[in-house]
Design a protein that fits this description.
homodimer; 380 residues; alpha/beta; 18% strand
């Protein structure tokens, strides 16, 4: 079978093995490592498609669970899929809905055939299965779809995790069968297994034996420490095929991005940059900035003097603070633009460092500037 | 004294006397009749300066009272005035603060020297006088400032209104004296007098005898009927000089704009288009559209098929409805863009109709399409 999603490994960084590559989709080819902005409800919060392009966004992520519930995937299908509905002509990736079923929905019951649960919006009874998830994702029409998985808590018991992983493997097989649009949409398998090395390795091998278009690493960034996450990556990514994309789901702190690239990951998504933006937290080359802080009241410098985004080229910290103190929508817009550009640009710098075989030097300087080396540094 | 604000009457419409003109400011020259978007807190809600330019906005309005309280006019002065602070290089008009003192502030006491009141934000005691209003506006640095006035309710008693109007005249004289930046900022007098013909005429004549850069008509759009408002304009505008701009404050329904232009008004401002936009009400050539209505769920047409705005060129009613049902910021943005463009374009059409001496025909067709001729039509 010909996959509509192709990964080409261009180069490995000399000292770390970090991968530089290209990810080809029916709607554009993108350089990796890459950060993907999240547009949960068919819109990256506060941003237009044109603005996303202007900050260098490539593929964006949207959420199967949310869109299935509202406005409905059949409606989006009628609009020509997500691309037509939201006017985005670049790549789109949809998750499987599994994560939201386990984190948002009420009174869920997991069975072999799928998951019964109640909608978090209106309490109605719903059922999501591997086949249903794929059907919904076929209607949404994203370039990259995810296999339906269970995402248990990281520290779930070994026995439970083993049973869950085996079921997720069976669900993966059913999803592959159900997928109807191989000409236009790729399908990724999701490796689970919590922090259990043997389960992660077994699951990676099981999924690798199936013909997925790429591989996701799930069940991370769900409350475990950075160290636990990096350890999982250390033994998981070597089990994944070199000629397919590796996607670490839900990761978006600068440190986690850099460390994961070093461990062989290609693509990432996270709500972090837009979520903290709306709360007035800006990511800068000098670390996090809480823009509502009184010290910025008469600070006429841009948010980040090293940033090339629209916000930093046109507005002062003092104006940004004013917008947040008065709860103006423009503040959310300018902060979201900045934070997304910050992470996208970080990945541009990471790619450049892979090309130049100086990723570790880049990392060292970045951590120093960002404040990660300070005692009690926050991790985001 | 040379005014930095100049009005040039280009033409009067043959059948109505509606004025086509240009309004020259230190930051651009604009055709009138013109609608000015409102940027209360140094931002037109949800919009960037570039977007405002792209929909044809010329002068925007900002609020003295709000900015004086937060972030402070001294801070904005330090930023290079409002133009520098909010990154807007076109015209800006500031109101006097009077209206907000009377509509927002608590426990106000009006005396000859000014108004004592409590801040609506934190309850602290404040005092606004003609001199203070002008000082604050000099710091804000708008191209056009307003004289400090009292804005009594439309149906206030004759005796109270007469005393108030006389005091507003004395305040106007004091404001003219206090103004320090005649090279960069014009100052408009504000005609009050409620619905009392003799008071309106007397006040217009009193203010006309002073050397203002233009004249505002205040105390309207505060709860009176459209008919009462139009009647006031009928006897007030003839008292204003032909060679200066006439500004009707707070007016922004299509009907009120057209009828007021017919009665000799040049410029307008109103929060209506952006306020109703955020509530999901869209102004279209076919009338008001409540986009959350279920009938738009699968309506793939643009909001207004006759509109040339970004929203209408790129998104469907179904997508707009989805954005409002999910309370997404992009919905507020796209609706604000559309409604502002609708009123700005309406004024472009009105100017064209003045040029062609067919304003009444234009009005008739517009009213028919918009639904104003239907029984029980809403006025906005």
């Amino acid at each position: 079978m010909e996959h509509p999603i192709k990964y080409t490994l261009l180069k490995k960084e000399k000292h770390t093995g970090a991968r530089l590559g290209t990810l080809e989709t029916p709607n554009g080819t993108y350089e990796t490592p890459m950060f993907m902005p999240v547009g949960t409800q068919a819109t990256v919060k506060a941003m237009t498609p044109e603005e996303l392009k202007s900050i260098g966004a490539g593929i964006i992520l949207s959420n199967t669970y949310h869109l299935w519930l509202r406005p409905g995937s059949d409606l989006i299908d009628e609009a020509g899929g997500l691309h037509g509905f939201m006017n985005w002509d670049q790549g789109i990736l949809t998750d499987s809905g599994g994560y939201q079923v386990f984190s948002l929905a009420d009174t869920r019951e997991i069975k072999e055939d799928g998951v019964h649960f109640k909608s978090h919006l209106d309490g109605r009874n719903l059922f999501l299965s591997p086949e249903k998830s794929i059907q919904v994702q076929n209607e949404l029409g994203a370039d990259i779809m995810m296999s339906f998985d269970e995402c248990p808590p990281f520290h779930e018991s070994y026995d439970y995790m083993k049973k869950s992983v085996d079921r997720t493997t069976r669900w993966a097989e059913r999803g592959l069968e159900a997928h109807q649009k191989w000409d236009k949409q790729g399908l990724f398998g999701i490796v689970q297994g919590g922090g259990y090395k043997d389960l992660r390795i077994q699951h990676a091998r099981d999924l690798r034996s199936m013909d997925f278009s790429g591989y996701s690493i799930g069940g991370l960034s769900v409350g475990e420490t950075h160290e636990e996450m990096f350890e999982v990556l250390d033994y998981t990514t070597p089990e994944l095929p070199e000629d397919k994309t590796r996607y670490l789901m839900g990761v978006g702190t600068p440190k986690a991005l850099i460390e994961s690239v070093i461990r062989g990951v290609d693509i990432f998504d996270c709500v972090l940059p837009t979520r903290v933006a709306r709360n007035g937290t800006l990511m800068t080359s000098q670390g996090r900035m809480r823009i509502k802080n009184a010290k910025y009241a008469r600070d006429w410098r841009p948010v980040d003097e090293k940033c090339d985004c629209y916000t930093c080229k046109n507005y002062s910290r003092a104006y940004m603070r004013h917008l947040f103190k008065t709860d103006e929508i423009l503040g959310h817009r300018l902060a979201s633009t900045h934070n997304l550009r910050f992470l996208i640009r970080l990945m541009e710098q990471v790619r450049e460092a892979i090309r130049n075989d100086n990723l570790l030097e880049f990392k060292e300087q970045f951590y120093e500037d960002y404040g990660y080396n300070e005692p009690n540094a926050l991790t985001y």
